[in-house]
Amino acid sequence: MYLRYQAYTPQGDLIQGTLSASSTPEAIAALHKQGLYIVHLTEPQEDCNYIFKLARFTSSKRRLPLKAVVIFLRQLSSLIRAGLPLLDCLEVLEQEAFYPALSRVCARVREGLIRGHSLSGALESQGIVFPPLVVPMTRAAEATGKLAEVYKHLAVAYERELKLRERLWTAAAYPFVVLALALVVCIVMVKFVLPQFLTLVTGSDIPLPRATSLLLAFAETKTLFTVLFALLFLLVAFALLTNTPRGAYYKDFLLLQLPIVGSLLSRMHLARLCRGLSLCLTNGIALAPALDIVKGTAANRFLQDQLEIVKRGLQSGQRLADLLAHNTVFPGLVVQMARIGEESGSLKDMLLEVANFYDQEVENSIVLLSALAEPTLIILVGGVVGFVVLALALPLITMSSMVM
């Protein structure tokens, strides 16, 4: 079969082409023998069994949970430092893995090693199972002989990201629960209290207040279905638009422009990018290929495009700090630390300092937003429930005053 590839030469030039091989691992080995650093390797999609193969591939080689990746890196690093051979380390992980998916991955990687592949080649043959940094870091560690140390640093980096994700989920859970409870209360009042209310006011000539009329209009089945259909239509249209490359680009760009959330997301992405770039430089990967690697870790299309611009500037001989200074995405702190790192020869240390700083800033922002969310939600939910109660109570108060 023929495979399309995109790779860097030892001189740092990006090339692409096609390669004939009987399997993907064989193609990877052939490209490595040529001294090429693989960026992309894909099969042509003209095969008649492509859909079936794709379904089977995605079902058996899905991305591991980040916690499982941390366990894999941490335990493998400890076992290697203890002096166990690599095959024995993978066998121990396969037998002791808490996640069944991790056990299957360890078995496949071990089989790849038995066939004669390197660890990086065996990991790369797993597709999207591991995060983007794992394979190039493994390749760099194999060249320097520091696999245990590199995996320890990777585990620490992914542990920080895992803790940050857990903090975000914890902070987001409270608003969702409160809003869901408010929605349930409103539905119960509209479905069960409102019919009883209608029996009282239908036979009277009391003019209904505007709030009551609005609530009655909203409670009608036709109005409810119209609102739900409109919301569903907007959600589907948004999903379809953001599923296109241009739509995803503009969505990611607009997310970074939001008043509060945009600043938080920007700092999260910058922390991840600086930490990944520092890890790459620490393990001997050149700056331009390192930028290409961390670009794959960015979960934002707009940032990926900006990193591509920076990478092209580096390949043309410009300095990193100057390129960052001419890009409005990167704040002054990143620019200054990059300039200090380039002048002092400690760029990887400066980038790590920036990553730690932004990690702390994100944690502080999450704590602050969680504290502000509680009174804001109480006011919001109280206003909604109060409106419903007031809309039901006003006609009753008017009726009681007329009787008296």
Overview of the structural elements:
With 404 residues, this protein is mainly alpha-helical. The chain has 3 domains: 49 residues; 65 residues, Up-down Bundle (Receptor-associated Protein); 258 residues, Type II secretion system (T2SS), domain F (Receptor-associated Protein, Up-down Bundle), CATH 1.20.81. It contains 17 helices and 3 strands. A 3-stranded antiparallel beta sheet has the order 2-1-3. β1 and β2 form a beta hairpin. About 4% of the residues have low confidence.
**Helix and strand succession?**
EEHEHHHHHHHHHHHHHHHH
β-strand percent reads under 5%
Strand order of the largest sheet: 2-1-3
User: What's the overall average pLDDT, rounded?
Assistant: 80
Classification by helices and strands: mainly alpha
How many beta-strand elements?
Answer: 3
Computed Rg: 28 Å
- What spatial form do the alpha-carbon principal axes imply? elongated
Could you name the ranges where pLDDT drops below 50 across 5 or more consecutive residues? 44-60
Total domains, how many? Answer: 3
- Annotation field: number of helices: 17
| CATH homology-level superfamily of the largest domain | Type II secretion system (T2SS), domain F
User: Which architecture of the largest domain does the CATH hierarchy give at level 2?
Assistant: Up-down Bundle
